[in-house]
Write a structure and sequence with these properties.
Length: 330
């Protein structure tokens, strides 16, 4: 898993480097924009075809767990983003600050939340249901939250219009794929690598397009390197705060160990695969590269940290130490 994370990180860096060396404008940029739209629709079509209705039914009844995860994703994260405003507005550029707020409004991941929950020995059916529902809720909640938190910052589409575009570009292909699952679901399940490469390839395409436009506009020449370092620290702080809060809340509310694991991993994640396509719909212009940078940084931090936390959960399940606590955050 670490090798996979490293490879994707290198691929993201390569996409940024390619954008710096080969920025696009005019007709080539427009052609790439249309191609990424098709790639995004294909990605969500395949996700819909892969989603199991049995998994949905198995996890859907665990409403207390889902409410806690959704509260962390769509309430706690945005509140923390607002709480960090005095720090962020002093050290970040307006585009990076807007991207930080956008990060806080995104839904949870699907694939990595489930993978880490499984690795740690958690409630996988509940994680499948919660992470999938979070992605669907994000179609509607992310534009509304962004409008409430950052609508005055400019550069963002009208929330109602944005929801319509997201429904058309993301939700409609997802629903179509799910409706066709009885006929193509087995084929998609046998080709898990196809979905992984489609997922990663789409993200790389959008990242390249966004950064290519940013390079051409001179945005990065006006972005101090200190702002990027501060952004990295803020992303790490956000992840640590949410993981600690979720661990404490799960134990205080009486959830068992397997549920706690699902809560910690589903509630602390933010989706790069959903966030980058959403950013493309919500924001226009050369600022898009800076707006998606917080999501990219947070994605790498959450993978590295959650891999260690999941391994620790797994070790403690295999060989519990008498009298030892299960604190995720120490």
């Amino acid at each position: 898993m670490r090798l996979h994370v490293d490879r994707f990180t290198l691929a993201l860096l390569a996409a940024v480097a390619l954008a710096w060396a080969w920025p696009l404008s005019g007709a080539p940029a427009a052609a790439l924009d249309r191609f990424t739209d098709v790639a995004i629709a294909t990605l969500f079509f395949l996700h819909g075809a892969r989603l199991s209705r049995e998994a949905i039914r198995a996890g859907a009844t665990h409403w207390r767990l889902h409410l806690l995860i959704f509260a962390a994703t769509f309430v706690l994260f945005p509140l923390l983003g607002l709480a960090l405003t005095p720090l962020a507005t002093r050290g970040l550029t307006p585009e990076l600050y807007l991207g930080l707020l956008f990060l806080c409004c995104l839904p949870s991941t699907v694939q990595s939340s489930i993978a880490f929950t499984s690795m740690a020995g958690g409630n996988v059916p509940a994680a499948v249901c919660s992470a999938s529902a979070s992605s669907l809720l994000g179609v509607f909640l992310t534009p509304l939250l962004m409008s409430a938190l950052a609508g005055a910052h400019g550069g963002m589409a009208d929330p109602v219009e944005a929801i319509g575009k997201i429904v058309l570009q993301l939700l409609a292909p997802f629903v179509a794929g799910h409706l066709l699952r009885p006929w193509i679901g087995a084929w998609v399940a046998r080709r898990r690598a196809l979905l992984r490469y489609t997922d990663q390839g789409t993200v790389l395409l959008v990242v390249y397009a966004a950064f290519a436009a940013s390079m051409g506009s001179g945005l990065w020449q006006s972005t101090p390197v200190e702002s990027v370092y501060l952004l990295l620290a803020i992303c790490a702080l956000l992840l640590a705060a949410v993981m600690i809060a979720l661990t404490m809340a799960a134990r205080r509310l009486g959830f068992d160990r397997s549920d706690e694991i699902a809560i910690v991993f589903c509630g602390s994640k933010k989706s790069l695969a959903t966030g980058v396509p959403m950013a493309k719909v919500l924001f226009a212009g050369p600022a898009l590269g800076a707006i998606v940078l917080p999501v990219m940084l947070f994605h790498q931090i959450q993978l590295l940290v959650c891999a260690q936390v999941a391994a620790r959960y797994a070790r403690r399940r295999a060989a519990p130490a008498p009298g030892a606590g299960d604190d995720v955050a120490d």
